[in-house]
Amino acid sequence: MWLVIAMLVLAVCGVLALAWLAATSLGLAAPVPHASAPMLLAGGILGAGIAGLVLAGVVRRVGMPLGAVMAGAERVAAGDYTVSIAEHGPPAVRALAHQFNTMTRRLEQHDRLRRDLMADVAHELRTPLTVMQGKLEGLLDGVYARDDRQLAELLEETRVLARLIEDLRTLALSESGALKLQKEPTDLSGLARDVVRAFAGEAAARGVRLDVEAAADLAPLTIDPVRIREVLTNLLTNALRHTPLDGSVGVRVEAASNDRISVVVRDTGSGMTPADLERAFDRFHKGADSRGSGLGLTIARSLVAAHGGEIHASSEADRGTTMTFTLPREWPSERET
Asked: What is the spatial distance between Cα 187 and Cα 218, in angstroms, rounded to a whole number?
């Protein structure tokens, strides 16, 4: 540290000496004694040399790392998100390089997720389209009889496509923040009972007991009832789909705390492995025996988050799964007003 300060002082003194000699030679300052001129000249040259060394060091320590950042930025602009630059130089430059590397890692991850999403969407759309194409070709070629059963199967495939497209639309809107929620005071307990009643026939056909336990004294929540109904529908669909004969599915609505309400959907089904549980809310992730699109839980998470809530899962293989989401009694904007 002291060596650097001394070099800077010598550099300043040398530059001043050269400036003084130049001024005296131009008659702008009093001439120096003849005996002192060589000393001043030597000191000036030495100081100028030190100043040059200091300047070169600054350029090397600051300019080169900044140049690396600029070169990396050009590669990122060209679409190369694998760029990583060395983090060296002064603290501010090191911090800049670190943030640049963090940015490129995130861009690379987002780009990979985008490519995976496109591949998954193409795969999910291809399946019903392939079935429809095969059925239609069979009907035209006389392989299949042109009866109501064949038409009903074709109609079901179009419904699969329609559900998938609507799920993708909902997911895109919710994750981009463009989803408009139609908020209104809603009895969450009553909403849960209505959804459970809608699944009563399916549960009976599967031989699964379906129960609901909802507190009657909960104050209405300001939520979008259509979207929360969609969340409950997705959770119950998954629960019934994975619960065997003589199993049970239960829904419970209760106060989780003074400012939050929780909804719990618990089943006695096949459960999830630790690997499946970790990826339960990932787009298009499906267990080995799942027949859905793999978007239901992703949409549920996005819709709950849009309400300022949280959702999480707990499960054990062959011992059932529990899905719990919580909603705030009041949204932040309501508390502020």
From this structure: 8
Report residue 288 as tokens: 């080995």
CB 65 within 8 A of CB 89: yes
Q: What is the pLDDT of residues 110-123, one digit of tens each?
A: 777 777 777 777 77
The two structure tokens encoding residue 176? 């981009």
**Residue 59 identity:** V
C-alpha–C-alpha distance, residues 256 and 221, integer Å: 14
Q: How far apart are CA 229 and CA 191, in angstroms?
A: 7
**Residues sharing a CB contact under 8 Å with residue 306, sequence separation 6 or more, in sequence order:** 174, 179, 181, 227
Report the C-alpha gap between 87 and 64 in whole angstroms.
Answer: 11
- Collapse the DSSP code of 233 into the 3-class scheme (helix H, G, I; strand E, B; otherwise coil) and give the result: helix
Q: Does the reported pTM lie above 0.70?
A: no
- Residues 132 and 146: their CA atoms lie apart, in Å, by 14
Q: Are residues 186 and 225 in contact, defined by beta-carbon separation less than 8 angstroms? A: yes
Query: Could you tell me whether strands 321-328 and 260-267 are parallel, antiparallel, or unpaired per DSSP bridges?
Result: antiparallel
pLDDT tier at 213 (50, 70, 90 boundaries)?
very high
**CATH code of domain 116-176:** 1.10.287
Separation of alpha carbons 93 and 63, rounded Å = 9
The H or E element that residue 51 is part of is helix 37-58
* Residues in contact with 4: Cβ distance below 8 Å, sequence separation at least 6, in sequence order: none
CATH architecture classification, 184-336: 2-Layer Sandwich (3.30)
**Tokens of residue 75, six digits:** 């590669």
Domain boundaries, the chain: 2-80, 116-176, 184-336
